[in-house]
Write a structure and sequence with these properties.
With about 140 residues, the protein is α+β, with helices and mostly antiparallel strands. The protein has two domains: about 60 residues; about 70 residues, Immunoglobulin-like (Sandwich), CATH 2.60.40. It has two helices and seven strands. The strands form two sheets. Strands 4-3-6-7 form a four-stranded antiparallel sheet, with no helix packed on it.
Length: about 140
């Protein structure tokens, strides 16, 4: 009889150990799933936090492209658009519709610009950021 009691106690201890092992395996699986989700979504979640942070405090390093200020001035001299482009985003390139890329701070001399020849009433300008992002703007003569 005593042997049966001892075997019962040993069996109960083994079952308790089995329950702890199942919990450990379950926690490991949950941790792996969380790690996989963060690996997949980590960059986009980080970008959302950066945008929120920049909207609250634009003086944070890296916010100059998110809160970009683009200035485009120009005039038509005959059929040539003579202008200047400047951006608050360091390292950005400006792509003016039909003209091509120019540095974010530079002059534009576009001969035959559709906006100067009457072929267009506005033009699209893209600011291409160093991190691969971009913003699109529209400009028309004033």
């Amino acid at each position: 009889m005593q042997e049966d009691i001892q075997q019962g106690q040993v069996k109960r201890r083994l079952e308790q150990g089995q329950g702890l092992m199942e919990y450990a395996l379950l926690l490991s699986l949950v941790a792996l799933v969380c790690l996989a989700i963060l690996t997949v979504l980590g960059r986009s979640v980080g970008e959302v936090f950066t945008k929120i942070n920049c909207s609250l405090n634009s003086s944070v390093v890296g916010c100059e492209c998110i809160n970009e200020q683009l200035t485009v001035t120009g005039t038509c001299v005959g059929v040539t658009l003579v202008g200047n482009v400047s951006s608050s985003c360091d390292g950005a390139m400006i792509d003016i519709e039909g003209y091509g890329n120019v540095p974010a701070s530079g002059n534009v001399n576009w001969s035959g610009a559709p906006i100067c020849t009457g072929g267009a009433t506005s033009m699209t300008i893209w600011s291409l950021h160093p991190d691969g992002g971009y913003k699109q703007y529209s400009a028309s003569p004033s």
